[in-house]
Amino acid sequence: MNTTIERKQQASFRLRASLMERLRAEARYEHRSLTDLVEILLDEALKHRPNPETMAAIEEARSGKYAGTIDASSFESFMKSINEIE
After folding, report:
1. Does 6 map to a domain?
2. pTM of the predicted model, to two decimals?
3. Is residue 50 situated within a structural domain?
4. Which among 2, 53, 59, 74 is least buried, having the fewest CB atoms inside 10 angstroms?
5. Tens-place pLDDT, residues 20-57
6. Dihedral over Cα of 52, 54, 55, 61: its sign
7. d(CA 81, CA 85)
8. Residue 38 contacts by C-beta under 8 Å, 6 or more apart in sequence?
9. 75/22 Cα distance (integer angstroms)
């Protein structure tokens, strides 16, 4: 079994006192050190961050640039097609 131990770097930053207390409480609940908990939370947050292509698609959708309009008859057809799938 190959185990690689990654070198850790010390970091210093300020957090709100209320957030620190929440982190400490969560670390106690999870039976982890504060450092371990923060490292895991940051890893998870970065893992789920969308890549640039996905971010561009999200921004395009939010802009409404390609959003069309829908009239009542096409909406009814759409709803019927959805109900047929179920």
Report:
1. no
2. 0.56
3. yes
4. 2
5. 999 999 999 999 999 999 999 999 999 988 999 999 99
6. positive
7. 7
8. 23
9. 47
CA distances (Å), origin 69, targets 65, 72, 73, 77, 79: 12, 10, 12, 14, 15
Into how many domains does the chain fold? 1
Q: What pLDDT does residue 43 have?
A: 95
Token look-up 């008859």 returns 73
Enclosing domain of residue 77: 17-81
Task: Please report whether residue 12 resides in a domain.
Answer: no
The reply to whether 11 falls in a domain is no
- Give the integer Cα–Cα distance in Å for 46 and 29: 23
Q: How far is CA 20 from CA 17, 31, 37, 60, 82, in A?
A: 5, 16, 12, 37, 47
